[in-house]
Design brief:
Beta-carotene 15,15'-monooxygenase; transmembrane helix; mainly alpha; 15 helices
Length: 374
């Protein structure tokens, strides 16, 4: 007689079912379909109907990104207010099960908006003549980049209940950080204008697809690591260091020579260093002190106590040095002031968030320098 227990297969985990019960609304889904239909039938007899449908699909895909942001933020805010995370820490669910459930089900309405818009846009692909299938490849990779975006929204939204001297993930902070990133990328592009060997990279059909797949993998791992840290299971610092080191792989299929590889590494490591410097906890000498203490106890894991920028910034600077002096000045100009502000302002007791004040002062000083220099 076989005494083996036959455990029933669970297709979805309990967190998935809970979030589906909270966020599944057939009335809302029906309303989205009706709204799309009204937009389409409004110009059913138009001569440029195909272009109009493509525009509606594109607009819907754009709106879906906003819906993803709002719904993931709302879901986490509701769970925080109801102390759901205190109960989820004691469950047997893995961090990845909880992360992908929130990415898929919590913003369910946003995914429906995206799916219908993506299908409408796909129906118009055959009616246009596109050179080298660029538009088709863009349409094909849209779901992958939308998933990567949802993962990054979740990572940012998990920064709840942190101290006033840490990253909160508010919309104002995201906008300020975006401007800082754009200033860094603009400086790197300006420094590369005279470097002719950086142009003419590899261009083929598979390159954008490879880049999107690598981006999805990196962002998914980041979402899983952030969820594990929020549940107090393990620190995410080592994972973010590894992800930062692997970031240039997303553009590896566009590289045709080693100078381009150095440039991509310099830009990627610089951007990730800014992201780490702003979003990860930074206090004067605390990271170095933690590194020394960890090294005395567990030498192999000492590096895991460091924020990612302490590893990535020197690597990016080395890549810049190997390319040109202008890129070195871009690094020095960007990071010297930013590091100085982050470490000095975080020691002060402000009524408002220190990171927000840091970004505002940094942008004001950069704007003042631009006015004086011009």
């Amino acid at each position: 007689m076989d005494n083996k227990l036959n455990i029933p297969k669970i297709r979805v985990n309990a967190e998935f079912q809970r979030l589906m019960w909270l966020n599944m609304s057939w009335g809302m889904i029906t309303g989205i379909i009706i709204l799309y239909s009204l937009f389409i039938f409004a110009k059913a007899n138009s001569e440029d109907l195909v272009e109009y449908i493509a525009g509606v699909g594109t607009f819907g895909a754009f709106i879906s990104s906003i819906a993803l942001y709002l719904q993931i933020e709302r879901s986490l805010r509701q769970d925080v207010s109801s102390n759901a995370f205190d109960q989820l820490r004691m469950s047997s669910l893995s961090p990845w099960q909880m992360a992908w459930a929130r990415i898929v089900v919590a913003p369910l309405t946003g995914w429906v908006i995206f799916l219908i818009g993506w299908i409408l846009l796909g129906l118009t692909m055959s009616h246009f003549n596109h050179e080298d299938n660029d538009v088709f490849i863009m349409w094909l990779t849209m779901p992958l980049y939308s998933w990567a975006l949802a993962c990054m929204i979740l990572v940012n939204a998990l920064q709840f209940k942190r101290g006033n001297d840490q990253w909160e993930g508010s919309l104002l902070q995201i906008l300020l950080l975006f401007v800082v990133m754009v200033m860094f990328l603009t400086g790197m592009l300006s420094a590369a204008e005279d470097l002719s060997y950086l142009g003419g990279g590899v261009s083929n059909t598979a390159s954008p697809i490879i880049a999107s797949i690598i981006s999805v993998v990196l962002c998914s791992v980041a979402a899983r690591a952030a969820m594990a840290e929020r549940l107090h299971l393990r620190s995410s610092r080592l994972t973010f260091i590894v992800l930062g080191l692997l970031t240039p792989l997303a553009a590896i299929s566009f590289v045709s020579n080693y100078q381009q590889a150095l440039y991509i590494c310099a830009v990627a490591y610089g951007g990730m260093s800014i992201l780490s410097l702003i979003t990860q906890k930074q206090t004067t000498f605390s990271s170095i002190g933690e590194f020394v203490r960890t090294r005395n106890r567990k030498p192999k894991w000492a590096i895991a106590s460091l924020p990612a920028w302490m590893i990535l910034l020197p690597l990016g600077l080395i890549c810049a040095v190997l390319l040109s002096a202008d890129m070195v000045w871009v690094y020095i100009g960007q990071f010297f002031l930013l590091i100085l502000l982050v470490f000095s302002i975080n020691q002060m007791k402000w009524r408002y968030n220190n990171i927000t004040i840091t970004l505002l002062i940094y942008l004001l000083l950069r704007g003042l320098w631009f006015v004086i220099a011009s």
